[in-house]
Design brief:
- By secondary structure, the protein is mainly beta.
- The protein has one domain: Hexapeptide repeat proteins (UDP N-Acetylglucosamine Acyltransferase, domain 1, 3 Solenoid).
- The chain is 5% helix and 36% strand.
- It is built from 2 helices and 26 strands.
- The chain has a 15-stranded parallel sheet that branches. A 5-stranded parallel sheet has the order 2-5-8-11-13, with no helix packed on it.
- A hairpin with a 2-residue loop joins strand 17 and strand 18.
- The mean pLDDT is 96.
């Protein structure tokens, strides 16, 4: 499930060329910077509601609305009919597809969002790729940096495989859903249509069309008067 086509419908991005020559989907993370710098031809076709900062090397497509307080540093390529909401922070080397939502207080860096992807509330998306119609609940963090030295590894056939990436957040396949306040540890891979329930601390590979959920017990007690 590591090939780009195993996770993503490449027809649902205008930037499928990022994946050319990539044996594993995470290899595209190494190529986003050069691709954006080569293809981000500055041109703004968006509507601004309020005052936003938009850097010099930014392309924004028609129908996109950029709300007050947003910062798009660039280089960045943002598609058509998107919502870049209040106080969103798009750092360097970001690609956003068509009909996407980047919401309040969300931060993106070295990331690729396929069409109709939603990152709507208080999310961090660093060094990650989110597939067609992938969705993050409020407060989801895609952690991209290990606490100790060395590159991020992925388990392949039961053995750790060095991705060659010091920073690697997550790959979310088409239609993947991550619930509120979940944390995905570096190198997480979530298959197509898979779901991670709210509050889960996830590490590793979640196959397509499966669900990861906590089994923590909830204690219910009688409320004392007064």
């Amino acid at each position: 499930m590591f090939k780009p086509a195993d996770l993503f419908d490449l027809s649902q991005t205008e930037h499928a060329a990022v994946f050319e020559g990539c044996r594993n989907a995470w290899d595209a993370l190494k190529l986003i910077k050069a691709y954006v710098e080569a293809h981000a031809r500055p041109s703004l076709h968006n509507q601004c509601e309020g005052v936003a900062f938009i850097g010099a090397q930014v392309f924004i497509g028609e129908g996109t609305v950029v709300e007050d307080g947003a910062m798009i540093k660039g280089p960045a390529i943002i598609g058509r009919n998107c919502q870049i909401r209040h106080n969103a922070y798009l750092r360097e080397h970001v690609i956003v597809g068509d009909h996407c939502v980047v919401g309040n207080s969300c931060e993106l860096k070295n990331a690729l969002l396929f069409n109709r992807c939603q990152v709507p509330h208080f999310n961090y998306v660093g060094d990650s790729i989110l597939g067609y119609r992938a969705h993050l609940g409020a407060g989801v963090i895609l952690s991209n940096y290990k606490s100790f030295s060395g590159n991020v590894t992925v388990d392949v056939d039961g053995q750790p495989f060095d991705t060659g990436l010091r920073k690697f957040g997550a790959l979310l396949g088409d239609g993947a859903e991550v619930g509120c306040n979940a944390v995905l540890n570096p190198g997480s891979i979530v298959g197509r249509g898979a779901i991670i329930y709210p509050g889960v601390n996830w590490r590793g590979i979640l196959p397509a069309n499966t669900i990861a959920k906590n089994k923590a017990a909830v204690e219910v007690v009688v409320r004392r008067a007064g």
